[in-house]
Amino acid sequence: MQNTSKHSTAKPTALVVEDDQDQRELVSLLLEECDMAVIQCETAESAEVVLERVGGDLSMIFTDVKLAGHMSGAELAELAKDRFPDLIVIVTSGSEAPHLPAGAMFMQKPWRALDILREPERAVMH
Q: What pLDDT is stored for residue 117 in this prediction?
């Protein structure tokens, strides 16, 4: 008999949304080091498609405020928290914190790698 339950072996999954490829790859690498699966997007619009398809399986979203495309990371955070209130959402920017939905966290740039490495622990315990 085939085991169809993926929850017992599935890694927690993070969605990283950042238009700067170097930043996106760095965050993804840090999260992968914490044994998370990572989905990368350059725009909030592509991240919205990921949310529609696998949003219930995501543990966290890490997004920059300024992204390629028309939607900002703050708007993506609003959309994500609206659809998935328990999802950990971290928004980062080198400028002032934007208005964020309740429960979303702001992380000021430049952040340290250690700041990123702490988040998967919250996502797993969440």
A: 86
Beta-carbon contacts of 100 under 8 Å, excluding residues fewer than 6 positions away, are 74, 77, 78, 89, 91, 106
Which structural domain, as residue segments, surrounds residue 37?
A: 13-121
Least Cα distance to 45 among 79, 89, 87 occurs for 79
pTM, rounded to two decimals: 0.89
In a domain, 3, yes or no: no
Which tens digit of pLDDT belongs to each residue from 35-89? 999 999 999 999 999 999 999 999 999 999 999 999 999 999 999 999 999 999 9
Is residue 38 classed as helix, strand or coil in its secondary structure? strand
How many domains does one find in the chain? 1
**What tokens were used for 41?**
């997007």
